[in-house]
Write a structure and sequence with these properties.
Blueprint: H1 2-27, H2 33-50, E1 53-59, E2 67-71, H3 77-85, E3 88-93, H4 102-108, E4 112-114, H5 119-134, E5 138-141, H6 161-166, E6 171-180, E7 183-184, H7 196-204, E8 209-215, H8 221-244, E9 255-256
Parallel strand pairs: 1-8, 2-5, 2-6, 3-4, 3-5
Antiparallel strand pairs: 1-9, 6-7, 6-8
Helix pairs in contact: 1-2, 1-4, 2-3
Length: 257
């Protein structure tokens, strides 16, 4: 059954990915960022649907103003799940650029890549984030710096919070929770030595995959300035971690998108 389902899904997913690569190569260089982001949203929604992922949105995502979305990181699909809610410019570790196919797609969609061990790189990324904020975009940040099982949240790197504080931009924490057949699951987390192909096999070969996206209450820019980047990173981490840890919040209620 897994092989049959995988075979049925991998063909349209491959076609969609090829169309995405053609778009970022031939169309994106010719159109403004607003058009790229809109195309990216619809393409991401199609990819999530073809992968058999149901998305439930909890809370009130900010959809009409510049914003920093800070989320825990579980899988390569996180980017596309959030893009489905609102076109988002992501800050991602430089290793993602080298991922086959997915790296090319997210790079073409305007992702800002960072070498985390370089102070100059952090400063350059901060400047690019400010440009996106000035254009009214939402920037997505995964401050753990890597993916996790989805059952806990690793400590946050605080350096890139500074860009939002300097730009006086509100921050909205986002908690991602993965389910399989109605129960919290680590099966689809992209962690350890697993390859992208191996993760696709786990994802495309099963049914009833659900990602809950909980948008927590917004932290005002004034509050961010008051706390400073290190304390606001810790505060945001605590709120997301409380929403991610398994517990009563695991009930599958919410608004499906």
């Amino acid at each position: 059954m897994r092989l049959l389902l995988f075979s049925l899904r991998i063909i349209p997913v491959t076609v969609l990915i090829l169309l995405g690569l053609l778009s970022v190569t031939l169309i994106f260089p010719l159109v403004p960022m607003s058009v790229r982001l809109a195309m990216n949203r619809y393409w991401s929604a199609a990819l999530v649907w073809l992968c058999g992922i149901k998305v439930q949105v909890h809370g009130d995502p900010k959809l009409d103003a510049p914003m920093l979305w800070v989320a825990n990181h579980v899988s390569w699909v996180d980017i596309f799940v959030l893009n489905k809610v609102r076109p988002t410019v992501f800050v991602a570790k430089s290793e993602i650029r080298r991922w086959p196919v997915i790296g090319w797609l997210v790079a073409g969609a305007g992702t800002v890549f960072i070498e985390r061990n370089s102070r100059q790189a952090i400063r350059r990324v901060g400047e690019q984030m400010k440009q996106r904020f000035d254009q009214g975009h939402v920037v997505g940040l995964f401050p753990e710096g890597t993916t996790s099982s989805g059952f806990d949240v690793a400590p946050f790197h605080s350096s890139l919070f500074d860009a939002a504080i300097r730009a006086q931009i509100d921050i909205q924490p986002v908690a991602l929770r993965f389910f399989h057949k109605g129960r919290r699951s680590i099966e689809h987390a992209f962690v350890g030595e697993q390859t992208l192909v191996g993760n696709l096999w786990c994802l495309l070969g099963v049914r009833q995959v659900l990602v809950q996206v909980e948008f927590l209450s917004i932290i005002s820019c004034d509050r961010c300035v008051e706390l400073g980047r290190a304390r606001i990173a810790d505060y945001t981490h605590g709120r997301i971690r409380a929403a991610v840890l398994p517990g009563e919040a695991d009930a599958q209620d919410g608004r499906a998108h």
